[in-house]
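Pipeline run #58 for the internal structure catalog. This entry was flagged by the ingest filter as a single-chain record with no existing model, so it goes straight to prediction. Upstream metadata was stripped on purpose; only the residue string is passed forward. Reviewer on rotation: M.T. Logging verbosity set to normal.
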Amino acid sequence: MRISVGSDHAGFLLKKELVSVLTGLGHVVFDLGCFSTDSVDYPGIAAGVARAVAAGTADRGVIICGTGIGSCIVANKIPGVRAALCHDLYSARVTREHNDSNVLCLGARVIGPDLAVEILKVWLATAFTGAERHGRRVGQIADIEAEYCKGRPQAPPEPGGGR
């Protein structure tokens, strides 16, 4: 599998460990930064990982920042990306089975490296079930995304606006 990986300074050391795990498992890894513990802003790196997945140059993506929250928000702005923030094994499994997530976000200041490795392994090993209800829901997510990618959506009507 081709996996795009990125982190900010808070996730740098964990990213190094996860890249080692990924290459050890035989995956091709594209490391999109950062490359030290010097302070950097996460949005550009997170967007780069997500764009690689959306473009098909990577099959999946992994983003690590302090909490994983900001990077997950950024990644989910990229059409075609279903990023999931996981801090436990159950979420890692279910987000693949039910949501077909293609980007994993992790918080280096929230979980330790051993748990992060286990989450990554579960997330990589779990397939999307594609069951009727889950496939239908992922399709609905794509429909909503497509609606908003057409241009700026119209503002919703004011409550009690008489429509």
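catalog note: Confidence is low (pLDDT under 50) at residues 152-163.
catalog note: The chain has six helices and five strands.
status: ready for reviewer M.T.
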